[in-house]
Design a protein that fits this description.
Helix content: over 70%
Distance between the termini: 12 Å
Largest sheet: none
Shape: elongated
Strand content: under 5%
């Protein structure tokens, strides 16, 4: 189970770090030009940046407690935070625009698996 959770944590780390970097670090003009980021024009750059920064922090929260000796409860907290971000994104941003919410549901569900799994079996 520990190996499965680590693989899932690293996968989620890569996805959320990449997505967060796009939202948080791209210049506004380039961010608005990304085809999948059409929602940014409706919700604003500030909201996109905050979501991106939260995804970056959450991504690092998934993997840093193991190798650095940080408290083990950081992993489920980070995973629950990322699941919350995905749920809010699906409900407040993508559903009103009639965009698919399946990717958000899958990522949020995987983050919940990590949260529950790490509550049962903390980071070793």
């Amino acid at each position: 189970m520990d190996t499965f959770l680590w693989i899932l944590q690293w996968l989620l780390f890569a996805v959320f770090l990449g997505a967060g970097a796009v939202k948080g670090l791209l210049p506004p003009g380039r961010l608005l030009a990304v085809e999948q980021m059409g929602w940014v024009a409706d919700t604003g750059i500030f909201r996109a940046r905050m979501a991106g920064y939260a995804e970056i922090v959450g991504a690092f929260g998934l993997i840093l407690p193991g190798p650095t000796g940080l408290p083990a409860y950081f992993v489920p907290v980070a995973a629950l935070g990322l699941a919350t971000i995905m749920g809010l994104a699906a409900v407040t941003v993508h559903r009103p625009r009639n965009e698919p919410i399946v990717p958000h549901a899958v990522l949020g569900g995987l983050a919940l698996v990590v949260a529950i799994g790490r509550l049962i079996e903390p980071v070793s």
